[in-house]
Amino acid sequence: MPRPVDGAAPGSGRRLKARVRRVVGTPAFAVLVFVISLVLFHWPYLAEEDRWTPAHLFITMFAGWTVVIALVFLLSLFLPSSGSEDKKPPSGG
Fold first, then answer.
1. The whole model's pTM is what?
2. How many helices (H) does the chain have, and how many strands (E)?
């Protein structure tokens, strides 16, 4: 059986996707996003004052928001939808 071009074993993409889904779907990942947010947004203000210019602060805040928005978007991809098939429709009785 020929191997894929990237050298990965067949089916490894599915295992990786399942592992990512399992990690991102945990409450610990949401806590990790919160801690990363705290560090990104407070670190420039707690560091040395002379080192941070307004331009550095702007770039840091922009990059921090970009990272947080990307992580929250990733988290939202793995949340169950509100119209999930797992729910049973109410009986009309």
1. 0.55
2. 3, 0
